[in-house]
Amino acid sequence: MLQEMVGSPGIYLVAFPRTELIEEKASWLRSQCAERPEVIIETFHSDQHVRGRVLARVETALRTYGQAQHAFILTTHETLLTLNPSGLSGWSLGIDENPEMSVLSGAFPASAIWSALAHQYRLDPIGDDRNWQVLPREGVERLKPSEIIKDAADKLTPFHKRVLSGHGVFVNIGDWEDAKLRRVKWWSAWTPAELIRECRSVVITGASFFSSLAYHATRWAHDGAINFEAVDVGQRTKRTGRPRVTIYYYTLHEGTTAWWRTDEGSRCLVQVSRWLENIGFNGYWSCNDEIRPYFRHRFPGVMCSPKLAGTNGLIEHVSCAYIYSNKAQDADNAILEVLDLDRKSIKRTRETEDLIQFVMRGAIRRPDFDGAYDVHLYSLDQAEVLKKYLIENGVTDDVAVTPVSEAGIMDVRRPETERSRKRAESQSLTPKERRERTKAYDKARSQARRDKKKEEDAKNGLPPPKLGRRSKSSIPDNASQPKQRTKPREGRIIMNSAITPLSASAPSSPLPETALVSKPSSAFVPEAPQRT
Q: How far apart are CA 243 and CA 386, in angstroms?
């Protein structure tokens, strides 16, 4: 993507997943444009010791260089998601890797704070009787970012930030008082719809975009109004080498952070780290942050972040180790129900994608690499997924999956807990069946609480509540609003889709990346109030 931009003068805003990747790509751009001083290259991220908020600095740069002949502004996905699209008119946008923060979800108890939330935000129906949009109340002073960060209820921080960002946030209750009876599930999805209307072009490069939550959310929210077309830029770099890959695994059971907190799970980590120490492992490695102490200082390898998509800084290494888990959490239930996905889809989007990106940062990334390449993974299922990827994507067909029985944990079995049993049962249900089960459970729980209250009132000699219509004061302010679309949409975008030939972001990149290019025409037909 960047190589194509270097050869085509224009003004480009390029967003990356990590700050260190911004500086790496900026250095590459400067080397390519060393003899062209007129090319402007600016970077903006939070690790710079510069006064002013990153968002404000980027907005200033967009105005300053809006008439330049050839300019690059490099920033993060997070900044892109908070930009006002109106400031991007005339700019060409490039998004490197899938924007993970585009889709967020969570759950929190609010039985003690529901009234504070009701004071700050109103709930508007979207017409499906399952989701209500959270919007700041007019006339109420908005929370400041500093107040949100200092709030003791840290689980609410992403929720507050997302509501105040202007992106649609939706919850599973129609009245904040309902939070006294059940947990509040919330979700939010950013889509590139507004960017497509404003930008000259939008290109997303990522190895697995069509399985990402960003893609699923865009398809759900806009119902075919946005067309994606794929360009396999990996085909432009023909692979001449045939690496000999050996994938080592240590267990037959899957790893999770919850399992690794147990005595037996932590023992498994100790055995893996001891084995890597015994063989003198000297490649690059990573793991979940909370289990890093098990591996740090045990062997001379290079410790890295578990998320390495896009970097070329490790391309000389011929071995790597990745002890990592990033599966679906309870906080994902809200978005799973909305997008009709299952927990396996989340695992593919997160854990498997992170694994593939990590492994492909070493020498195997070079198209001409023809040597041995060793990979150490925790479990058999991860090894099999990686083998399938390497073969199906033409990286190599010489892949051996090898158990490390000497580590002594191959026969360890994770005990089934009540929670894991229920989760397994849930995974066997379709999204519709899960929604129906949740609805029935909520109904039964509410009825049980009403029955309990009646019993307590009877014991205290209180009369039973009168049946009939609710008083006017008990009816929510938004109850009289007309029913709206089940799917909130910004309008149908009439587009002329086109594919622009792209090359990889670095000359040696062999990954079969997907480039998505959408060029809207000037026609925009509004069909519904903005809800996304």
A: 14
Which residues of the chain, if any, have pLDDT below 50?
A: 152, 468-532
For position 230, what pLDDT does the model report? Answer: 76
Residue 390 backbone zone (phi > 0: left; psi -120 to 50: alpha; other: beta): alpha
Let me know how long the chain is. Answer: 532
Nearest by Cα to 42 from 67, 21, 65, 20: 65
**Dihedral sign for Cα atoms in the order 356, 362, 363, 365:** positive
Q: How far apart are CA 206 and CA 215, in angstroms?
A: 11
Q: 105, 334 in Cβ contact below 8 A?
A: yes
User: What dihedral angle (degrees, nearest 10) is formed by the CA atoms of 104, 110, 116, 122?
Assistant: 50
CA proximity to 2, closest of 37, 45, 35, 39: 39
What does the alpha-carbon distance between residue 254 and residue 352 come to, in Å, rounded to a whole number?
13
| pLDDT tens string 303-340 | 998 988 767 889 999 999 999 999 877 777 778 777 87
Pairwise CA distance, residues 102 & 211, whole Å:
14
Residue 434 lies in a domain: no
Q: Are 79 and 55 in contact (CB under 8 A)?
A: yes
Looking at residue 489, what is its pLDDT?
36
Domain-embedded: residue 124:
yes
Paired sense of beta strands 201-206 and 514-518, if any: antiparallel
CA 407, CA 323: separation in Å to the nearest integer? 14
**Starting at the edge strand that comes first in sequence, how are the strands of the sheet with 11-16 ordered?**
40-43, 71-76, 11-16, 92-96, 201-206, 514-518, 230-232
Total domain count, the chain: 3
Q: Report, in angstroms and rounded to the nearest whole number, the Rg of the chain calculated over CA atoms.
A: 26
CATH number (domain holding residue 371)? 3.40.50.300
Structure tokens at 513: 């990346």
Locate 120 and state its tokens: 């700050």
